[in-house]
Amino acid sequence: MTQAAPLVKVSDLKKYFPVKRGIVFEKKIGDVRAVDGISFDILRGETLGLVGESGCGKTTAGRTILGLYPLTSGNVVIDQHQINNAKGDELLQIRRKAQMIFQDPYASLNPRWTVNAIVSEPLQIHGLVHNEKERAERVQELLTLVGLSGRLINRFPHEFSGGQRQRIGVARALASNPLFIVCDEPISALDVSIQAQVVNLLEDLQDQFGLTYLFIAHDLSMVRHICDRVAVMYLGKMVELADHDELYDHPLHPYTIALLSAVPIPDPQKDRQRQRIILSGDVPSPMNPPPGCRFHPRCPIAKEHCSQVEPKWREITPGHWIACHEAKDV
Amino acid sequence: MDPILEVIDLRTRFHIPEGTVYAVNGVSFQVTDGETLAVVGESGCGKSVSMLSILGLIPIPPGEIVSGQALYFGQDLLKKSEAEMEHIRGKEIAMIFQDPMTSLNPVLSIGRQISEALTTHLGISQEEANSQTVELLERVGIPGPRERLGDYPHQFSGGMRQRVMIAMALTCNPNLLIADEPTTALDVTIQAQIVELMIHLRDQFGMSLIWITHDLGVVAGLADRVIVMYAGFIVEEAGVEELYKNPRHPYTQALMAALPRVDRRKNQRLKSIPGAPPSLLVEPYGCPFAQRCDYVIERCRKENPPLIAIGVGHKAACWVEVTTGKVL
User: CA B169, CA B167: separation in Å to the nearest integer?
Assistant: First the structure.
């Protein structure tokens, strides 16, 4: 890994959603602690994977980092801009530099807009084109970049397949020449053969423009393929962060180990021989997470103190971070 | 071994305002006693429609079963009346669906939904049905089953709801269980729980299982035999080990190459399949995979290859022997 400077710095980020009861006299009865204190850097040009099961807070984390949700506490810096109090021009600057690709290519494109309008909007908002000719040229260029024919600009989203729609979403994200793109499960709604197309496209664009990605996903096989480093979240907390091969070959946190062992391998012999760790039960509610280590009620190696003391986020070997009392470096 | 279900040349179409959807185009397969058959394919390949056709669950119109037979212990299910099918569905052949939230009735307690199947098919009393329901819920691993009888679907998590669905499917001890992407909506750790449970129950109840999925990973550890479907056709059929070791159809090969593996370091780009599956609104002509195939020859565009036996229990629908480039 090159010693590049971090483009994105996230420190102790928290995002709570209040839970209210009552209609006229709303009373706050608690918080959903969707993201509860996570810290990491994303280096220039790298792809950081953020994985975890549904409800672990990975999507909320991605959105809060971009300032789409106001953060509860903590700090996010994107290319030297603080996201916390950004307003007006500075917010516009951040929006230009940091973009997002959404999970559902059916819901994230306005059905009443043509491809032309969808891809043009960021160009106009950020004043990146000065006349109609420039705009038309740029839209053509963007569509060609993502592998769509420029002849399709006057079509509507419903005329495209899922994979093509996701390409339109990518073109829109690229329109403002961003440095950083949050990819929120960009391929999970697509078929296998189309997934590979979109992943290859994202990789090519990264090579071409030096993009930095935060790649949020639950498909651990794809994350290993596309990411340089991978962070694992559980119930609003980070449990492990390491270089991709290190994490997959030597996972140390019991949750990561269980998660990886649950991923099916497309090889009958290997899959049947494998030691599978089946976690019992479900993920607890983020409204009142378990005390101590949040994973302790399901953890196969939990000891007494795991239910009382919250484990520290520590660097167990260089570049390999973990939050667990019991995990040992092997 | 005798097949318990034999499907011969099934063709299903849908007549919609835009034209005719050629959803299933001559599908034939067998399921033997106690066997687990996986049906793999991408969305729109006809895997679910085939199964729904067999069970008489296709709305007619717009659907039309143009031809075919589905012989269950020698009786053609496609010729049975709706009343007769009601006795077979649930009792002889049960099905579970992908999304446990939309396939459970949200306004009925789960105890009522499960015991309904028992009182309908077995004609036992409500009291007896309740106690059997508790036993079933226990077998599918729902903690505190007696207390949960009165709970409604929204009070269960996704994995627990799928367990309820499984319990419901098992009520009458079916001979054949058709599971349509039962783990797709679930997280990997919950998926592993459900797969484990299904293997356990399959062996315990001694039933045959058809597992429909788009995930080549899940079926590797589960199935005995695999069918690969594409655009309404079966393109390859083989024993599970043979298929993964020696995939012969260019589509199967491409699908495997497009799949990253959790147990392997990244060494190259994923091999993507260019283009998209053909429109089902066009009457199939030639091999359905021809436009996306690396090995395409002239004949592929004119004539659709039949399933050709190429090894023990291994069939592929391709004119070209992909490994050698020899034209069959």
Answer: 5
